[in-house]
Amino acid sequence: MKPVNHKALFLVIPVLVLVAISAVIPLMTVVNYSVQDTFGNNVFTWAGTSWYENVLHSERFWNALVRNLIFSGIILAIEIPLGILVALHMPRRGFGVAVCLVLMALPLLIPWNVVGTIWQVFGRVDIGLLGAALKGAGVDYNYVQDPIDAWATLIAMDVWHWTSLVTLLAYAGLVSIPDAYYQAARIDGASGWQVFRHIQLPKMAHVLTIAILLRFMDSFTIYTEPFVVTGGGPGNSTTFVSIDLVQMAVGQFDLGPAAAMSIIYFLIILTFSWVFYAVMTREDSKPVPDEKENAS
Amino acid sequence: MARIDLANVRHAYGPEPQSDADYALRHVNQAFDNGGAYALLGPSGCGKTSLLNIISGLVAPTEGRVRFDGVDVTDLPTARRNISQVFQFPVVYDSMSVRDNLAFPLRNRGMKGVEAKKRADEVLDMIGLKRQGNRRARGLTADEKQKISLGRGLVRSDVNAILFDEPLTVIDPEMKWRLRAQLKELHKRFGYTMIYVTHDQTEALTFADKVVVMYEGQIVQVGSPEDLFERPRHTFVGYFIGSPGMNVIPTQLEGQAVRVGEYVAPLPIRPIIRGEPKLEIGVRPEYVRVSSEGIPMQIKRVEDVGRLKIVHAIAEGYPITAVVREGAAIPADPHFTIDTGKLLLYADSWRVDLGDGVQ
């Protein structure tokens, strides 16, 4: 038998400490706030589940949550197909590859609040290139006053900012496909659509799973950009859960409800991500029913 | 099935080829008879795969024409050439079942679902994957996947030719023998035109009726396994076929004889040599007799390879190998002789006709 020693523990301790400081302790603090009430002076009283009940019965929370879901749904529906489409048309070899990759990476390198500022200025009807151009063209566009325009601006900004992430991931999947697959498809008389459906898409499946997960989690927790561009308005039309949360915690100093909301928000994201991941990776090694691909 | 003709085919992958070295295929004129089983044999990078891809239309040749049964197909796309091809590494459609993988090329050519399924099942039986028919192709082992690729190559019965590009590389040795025997059997039963690319001489010699040996972008010899062994047209064929390869020794011509050092060997006729080429004699190790008379040699090393022994020696300053039976005694003062009629003469690496009628 091997002598038992605990050296391995010393190697794990730094990570444990870091995770504890960065995640576990803050999370537990939030849990702590969510079950207590305070009127300042560090005096806390037990509140039980009442904050949770408040949040779950608050229309404001549900409205924000629905806005979040709609936003994530829309940007996924645009960014994933668009990202794949761009990746399919990127050059595979030669000088163009480097140029494309650098151009694609640029939006990803810009700090989020700067992205917000860029679009905030870009969309202004008085001085912004987009806003002024649209106004000049006779379109009644004003993201400060019109909820639809505010949403359109946020979606356009997110697509501009993040589609290249999907593209880069999809491209990585595409370039890993050996030439023999395309050659075999030509031998087998496959159409362009069949090549996409039966070769490219399955080979991209894994990276696309990651792309969808990342984009879902990021867009569901979006805060900085809408905060900078619209500040949650006009009215409450672009107030997402995270914006609402900050208003409640920092603006109104309602620590208890804000903490309860954080925990619920966290659990929702966790659940969604887990379900997504489980559904998307379940496909492997499952037998297909007979004749399913019949004469595709 | 069709006869395939390659006329003056040259191919370069880079733009504007200047010298011969820029061509992956230098100059190929070759006919593949209808129903023949051919092996394309040669080392890596000799242009075998390029040649195969030109036949199937995956690669358009820089120059020259490709004809199937006399019809020029050079400008036809792959799908319309009606060729099937199996690649070195497995290609399976992950999202389909094993059976649908095989039925895919049939359905793409308009075969009805039931009929395609029936045909796919026949082939599944042949490659031994009948039980896995309903399984998703993803998650199978590499050799099962390669069997699917092989099956897809065999599933269409009306193809002009079936091309194999080192299809058994990833298959384990025992299965290799079985599949190769099955391919050979299929060839006998259905008379497909088959072209089989390999760099393994055993594979080529056991599979094919005719072996096409390629070297540096050219076809150096086409012949039966026996031709390649007995009368290599090029010294490369001598090295490449046979184990160990042929002995090749520089020589000078003296009338109707060749001289190596102080030894002279007579030739059956006076060969016709133009110019001043580099002359070499070639002799298979199997025809070098180790004895106590003849040309003296120093033995460097003896390898025992089971029923045979391979003798590595130096004679007249040149390395020479001989193959002797396991029990044969090797004299203390070794000499060697060469079996009569087994001496071959090469001028600039190409064989010189010594009156045996074969060129």
Q: What does this 3D model show about the protein?
A:
The complex is a heterodimer of chains A (296) and B (359). Chain A has helices at residues 7-34, 50-56, 59-88, 95-109, 112-122, 129-136, 147-175, 179-187, 192-220, 224-229, 241-251, 255-282, and strands spanning 36-38, 44-46. Chain A has 296 residues and is mainly alpha-helical. A two-stranded antiparallel ribbon of chain A has the order 1-2. Chain A is globular, with a radius of gyration of 24 Å. Chain B has 359 residues and is an alpha+beta fold. Chain B contains nine helices and 23 strands. Chain B has a six-stranded mixed beta sheet, sandwiched between helices. In chain B, strands 2-1-4-5 form a four-stranded antiparallel beta sheet, covered by helices on one side. In chain B, strands 11-15-22-23 form a four-stranded antiparallel beta sheet. Chain B is globular and about 75 Å long. The mean pLDDT of chain B is 86.
Key structural traits:
heterodimer, A: 296 residues, mainly alpha, two-stranded antiparallel ribbon, 12 helices, disordered C terminus, B: 359 residues, alpha+beta, 6-stranded mixed sheet, 4-stranded antiparallel sheet
| Residues in β-strands, percent of chain A | under 5%
Task: List unreliable stretches of 5+ residues of chain B.
Answer: none
Class from secondary-structure proportions of chain A: mainly alpha
Number of helices of chain A: 12
User: Largest sheet of chain B at a glance?
Assistant: 6 strands, mixed
Number of strands of chain B: 23
Q: Percent range for helical residues of chain B?
A: 10-25%
**What is the molecular shape of chain A?**
globular
- Measured between the Cα atoms of the first and last residue of chain B, the distance is 30 Å
Low-confidence stretches of chain A: 287-296
